[in-house]
Design goal:
single chain; alpha/beta; Rossmann fold; nine-stranded mixed beta sheet; eight-stranded mixed beta sheet; 39 strands; about 35% helix; elongated
């Protein structure tokens, strides 16, 4: 890929015929009005897709921006979401059936569409802009340009009607044009082509494209901005205006001096002064500011259904800004440079912020699988997220990451070779090169292009092969870039020195081995040079893709003796053209010299076979296919995300939950501990020492104390932590504590009791040996010893290595110490836990609720007639422990999946449920009926004290002086009487859950609990008593 938006030739397009098209709007729309895009889903089999007429192409004023940003964002209701999913699924079916994106209905000849290359949309009245065509192809690096008026005559006014195409907003740092201001308000526009422009030339048949970016010039007056906006609108472009300081710090500073070197493995500049650190901070602030400006302009152009395609490292924060403005916007981001390995990327300050911003996009694309793998690895190692084969997953949200190798438009080069101008130039070159083999290099004069290494390899070849000294020559085109930067000036001097030395040593009066040009070539000259040479040398030290190799292959097909491609393995193109090219390591000068010798001496048959492989790839993997594949994948990703969203729990309705809480008489609040109400240390700076001593979140202590003081509210902390840990944190609260997944319960007076007895723990010592073995071989992992379980935790270790070790550990466990043991192995996100069969939070919850109710009547001779009429269960539980949600659920999660049969539950239910429990679970029609299942612990003594694991025997209570024991549980009936309105199950930070609702962070939990505490009746009574009396 040509970084920096520059190529060694100009991009000249041919004007397409002008077409007409109806844009369906309101009947009352006047000439200046803008009809709106509408969607109507008449049925599952019919989709009417109606794009709007035009949107403005002028930039927003500050007032307009404020108005747009202040517009409230509407959260789609479930019905709206469902309809949207149906529409997206239908669109995907149409694309796959060959309809692509032409989903429009009728067309109307009243509005004009100028269908130039790229299908760009203008914004002047009812006319839409087009790409203009120059009569003569020119170099994008030359001084030649054309005035805006010169292109007006190239418009073809044919009235051919086309169906409406999907709108594509292409957002890049630079527009495909460079603007120079003339006298007054006139502008000189030059088509400054780059690899991105070249790649998107042929997508006009699929997309209606609009370009958004910086025009390369600073315009300070409003009149100049308006005139430039109008001129660019005719070319389908929308400008983003940046001031000089922003350009200097954002583009020249953070983009070119920080991100670009880092992504090409050059490394960050060494700071020797504190001012350099401050400068880096200001550059990043300018980078964020520039991305916000881009987002505002994109938002002003956006219409419902548009696809926004962000490009390159200049706009890594843009997806986040766009999603903030409109969460439903379809956003893709593509990187045209390499993405470094995580070990290189992690040296970047503010590394996490950029990764998080990019991850808000729906689809992230790279040129090669290696770059995509590096990105996923960086997200895993730095952010601690889950890497999957599909992409990166964060709390249930999947960001798709994939490789989309870019291509070129080969027909453009093939057709150019048929022109008389190119044929004439080819004859002249062949006459000049007669009797010699010619090697070609076309590069920007850049540090990553490996030009010095290429010259040194050629020098070694001439030194080792004296018979070739006047029979081979190298033509090197080196397009100057960033000539004002000291490093590039030094590189230029180094290249000139090597060229002079080789020519002086091996040249003669009539011949020099190297023809070096410090300039670009016109397009027809470059095509002729491609077609006339025998070997192409691409020796990039690190390159995103490098399309020179593609262009060379496209221009070799007409020859009888095809050329040979020598390609650096560090160029992205090596993964695509490696089958037909000679791959080399540009750092190995000897290897490159041998490759040059092999290419020059290669037989015609091998040349043909290699070229056939490469030419087939170049002509099938075109730029159009690249763009089509990316956008099609983006649509599929959005459809899959919407389908996943339908199965995810909604956010907790705080107001209705608070109202149900107030209207109830006996309340039960069950909280998890870790990742629910604890203070957190932000990743990736997770401190093992600090986290091991974490306590309650500071904001929840007071409100939790308020809830515990309410006589009608019982609060339970249900955790996998040890008893002493919970005692240390909650010792001062009037609260029930259930430690080790509910196996130990502490009542309000501080007395602990087991909820399950006589657990078989014979396996513990052998499992401990396995855990210690892997702990010693996995740095920063540790073993947590509990009374009823063992946990090996690797959350502080390298995650990828930890997952590998966890898989190996499971194999050791199942084939060794637990092969015949009655245990469960619970694999958490970053842990492996071994516990006895039947130990879970759901298994213990019935006993916990029983003890709470019995404590209210410890010595009564009558059956307690107390039922909880409001229950909230809130936590971040392992999947195995989520049966606690099902215990309370009045809609009965068991029956909802229709898994009850023969007294057993096939899914999400412990095998210890009795037949009676499942019979009761079948009562489902009455939503407010009390449906309660009972789970009795395994491996507990029966009434005679004998150990029995086959029957539902129940252990006695350990509360002295109590009338009722847990063995008398049946006579107490149902302990909970809740309806769907008075039962709340909520997962924290875990969207793949059986809970009814969802909260994202601990801070949201704290805010919700605080609202309950403020509404607590006891709190309100205390406030009323504190008011002075009025006599």
């Amino acid at each position: 890929m040509y970084e920096g938006g520059r190529m060694p030739y100009s991009l000249t397009t041919k004007a397409s015929q002008k077409s007409k098209q109806l844009w369906e709007g309101d009947e009352s729309s006047g000439p200046s009005s803008t009809p709106q895009r509408r969607f109507s889903l008449s049925s599952l089999g019919e989709l009417n897709y109606r794009p709007s007429n035009l949107t403005r192409t002028t930039s927003l004023t500050e007032e307009e921006v404020k108005h747009d940003l202040s517009t409230p964002k509407v959260t789609p209701t479930p019905s709206v979401t469902s309809a949207r999913v149906e529409r997206l699924v239908r669109e995907r079916q149409l694309r796959r059936s060959g309809s692509c994106y032409t989903l429009g209905d009728e067309v109307d000849a009243k509005s004009e569409v100028l269908g130039g290359n790229g299908g760009m949309v203008g914004g002047s009245g009812d006319r839409m802009g087009e790409w203009w065509a120059a009569t003569e192809p020119q170099s994008s690096h030359s001084k030649a340009g054309a005035h805006t008026d010169n292109y007006e005559s190239s418009r073809n006014l044919n009235d051919k009607i086309h169906r409406s195409a999907q709108r594509l907003l292409v957002v890049a740092n630079r527009l495909p044009v460079s603007a120079t201001r003339l006298d007054g308000d006139k502008w000189d526009l030059q088509l400054s082509a780059g690899g991105l422009v070249s790649a998107l030339l042929g997508v006009k048949q699929i997309f209606e494209t609009r370009w958004i970016g910086w025009a390369g010039v600073s315009v300070h007056d409003e009149r100049g901005r308006a005139s430039l906006t109008e001129a660019l609108a005719l070319k389908g472009c929308v400008p983003v205006f940046l001031d000089d300081d922003t350009v200097d710090q954002y583009y020249n500073g953070y983009c070119n001096n920080v991100l670009w070197p880092l992504f090409h493995y050059i490394g960050l500049p060494q700071a020797d002064r504190l001012a350099a650190t401050r400068s880096l901070d200001s550059q990043y602030a300018a980078y964020q500011h520039a991305n916000k400006l881009f987002a505002q302009v994109v938002f002003s152009q956006y219409q419902e259904g548009d696809v926004v395609w962000c490009h390159d490292y200049h706009l890594m924060c843009l997806p986040q800004e766009l999603k903030t403005l409109n969460p439903r916007m379809k956003v893709g981001w593509f990187l045209h440079t390499p993405f470094p390995s995580s070990e290189i990327y992690r040296t970047l300050p503010l590394r996490s912020e950029l990764l998080k911003a990019v991850l808000t996009a729906d689809l992230i694309g790279f040129h090669t699988y290696d770059y995509a793998r590096h990105f996923v690895s960086a997200c895993t190692r730095i952010l601690g997220l889950e890497g999957t084969p599909e992409g990166v997953e964060d709390q249930g949200k999947l960001t798709r990451v994939a490789a989309f190798p870019i291509g070129i438009d080969p027909e453009r080069f093939i057709q150019a070779l048929e022109t008389e101008q190119v044929k004439l130039h080819v004859k002249e070159l062949l006459r000049f090169f007669a009797g010699r083999k010619v090697m070609l290099g076309v590069d920007r004069l850049d540090m990553i292009k490996g030009i010095p290494q290429k010259l040194l390899a050629f020098e070694m070849f001439l030194e080792k092969n004296p018979e070739w000294r006047e029979k081979v020559m190298l033509v090197q085109i080196a397009v100057p870039t960033r000539t004002d930067v000291h490093e590039y000036q030094r590189l230029t001097s180094q290249v000139h020195e090597i060229v002079g030395r080789i020519n002086g040593r091996y040249g003669t009066v009539t011949f020099v081995p190297i023809h070096h040009l410090d300039r670009s070539l016109a397009f027809h000259e470059l095509c002729a040079l491609y077609a006339s040479t025998d070997v192409a040398l691409v020796t990039s030290l690190r390159d995103g893709m490098n399309l020179v190799s593609y262009e060379y292959v496209a221009c070799q097909n007409f020859k009888n003796t095809e050329g040979v491609l020598v390609l650096s393995e560090f160029a992205g193109a090596a993964q695509s053209l490696g089958a037909g090219a000679i791959l080399v390591n540009p750092w190995n000068i000897r290897e490159m010299y041998i490759a040059i010798e092999e290419a020059l001496k290669m037989s015609d048959e091998e040349r043909k076979e290699r070229h056939r492989h490469n030419f087939t790839h170049v002509t099938t993997h075109t730029a159009q296919a690249w763009a089509h594949n990316f956008v099609s994948e983006l649509y599929d990703t959005i459809v899959e995300a919407e389908l996943r969203t339908l199965n995810e729990p909604p956010n907790l309705p705080v107001d209705s939950a608070k109202e149900s809480f107030l209207n109830s008489k006996n309340r039960l609040l069950v909280f998890g501990f870790n990742s629910t109400i604890t203070a957190t240390v932000e990743a990736p700076r997770r401190d093992q020492i600090k986290e091991s001593k974490l306590g309650l979140h500071p904001g929840i202590k007071e409100c939790l104390g308020t809830l515990c003081s309410d006589p009608n509210t019982d609060v339970v902390i249900l955790s996998g932590s040890k008893r002493d840990t919970l005692e240390e944190v909650f010792g001062g609260f009037n609260i029930w504590l259930a430690a080790e997944n509910g196996m130990y319960l502490r009542d309000l007076i501080g007395k602990w009791m087991p909820t399950m007895e006589h657990l078989n723990m014979d396996w513990k010592d052998s499992v401990q040996l396995v855990f210690d073995y892997f702990c010693a071989r996995t740095p920063r992992s540790f073993v947590e010893k509990r009374e009823t379980s063992l946990v090996w935790n690797y959350k502080y270790a390298d995650l990828e290595f930890g997952r590998v070790q966890a898989r190996n550990m499971l194999q050791h466990l199942w084939t060794g110490p637990i092969s015949n043991a009655a245990v469960d192995v619970v694999q958490g996100q970053k842990s492996v836990e071994v516990r006895p069969i039947g130990v879970s939070k759901g298994a213990a919850i019935d006993r916990i609720v029983f003890e709470i109710i019995r404590s209210k009547h410890p010595s009564s001779s009558q059956t307690p007639n107390i039922q909880f009429d409001f229950v909230m269960c809130l936590g971040h539980f392992l999947s195995k422990d989520e049966d606690v949600y099902a215990y309370f659920d009045p809609d009965n999660a068991f029956d909802r999946d229709n898994r009850c049969s023969n007294g057993k539950l096939e899914r999400n239910l412990d095998r210890r449920l009795s037949a009676k429990s499942c019979d009761r679970a079948s009562v489902k029609n009455n939503k407010s009926s009390v449906v309660r299942t009972k789970t009795y612990p395994l491996f507990s003594p029966d009434r005679n004290g004998a150990h029995s694991s086959a029957s539902h025997s129940r252990s006695n209570s350990f509360k002295e002086g109590s009338i009722y024991q847990y063995s008398d549980r049946d006579i107490m009936g149902d302990l909970v009487n809740v309806s769907p309105e008075t039962y709340i199950s909520c997962a924290v930070g875990k969207k793949h859950s059986s809970a009814r609702y969802y909260l994202d962070t601990v801070n949201e939990v704290v805010s919700f609990v605080k609202s309950l505490a403020d509404a607590c009746p006891c709190e309100m009574e205390s406030q009323d008593q504190s008011l002075p009396s009025v006599s």
